[in-house]
Amino acid sequence: MIVLASQSASRRAMLEAAGIGFRAQPAHVDERAIETALEGAPPAEIALELAKAKALAVSAPGELVLGSDSLVACQGRRFDKPESRAQAAEHLRFFSGRIMDLHSAAALVRDGEVLWAGPSLARLHVIPLSDAFIDSYLDAEWPEVAGCVGVFRIEARGVQLFERIEGDYFTILGMPLLLVQAALRKLGVMPQ
User: Fold this and answer.
1) What CA dihedral angle connects 39, 101, 66 and 33, to 10 degrees?
2) Which of 69, 101, 131, 139 is flagged as catalytic?
3) Which of 4, 66, 83, 173 is the most exposed place for a label (fewest CB within 10 A)?
């Protein structure tokens, strides 16, 4: 059994569906402070450091802890979860007709030591979004997407935002599950 350093319903659902035994223990880290300290670093590196920080924050003797984080970058600008519906609409207007890069990363920690960490990238091609579409979309999806970087849930109406997606589904859900499984196999936690 592993410890998932997250309260994300999506990450819990992925592990449950994959048959990976876990218990969830939310990590309390100052994400903004970590991002500020890494200002200017590539988004993949920031996501990786946040995943490590989350896993390290709940590390306890003998337990294998999984931390994960995702962030969105578009046109050289990094986006966090929207703080309000108005900000969500601003983000969607910015993404309209552009490519959104979703960086997802995970890390496995035991006894305060990072045993493995890996990033993954999904590129999401956003359709041109009218203000009427954005309003209708947020009427249906707010406040559920308030906790979603990129202002979408791919498993819900968020799929309507995209004309093409490059990358794996799990990365888009918020954790590079295929990479995590490979690392768990290598560590002997999952069978080969």
Assistant:
1) 20
2) 69
3) 83
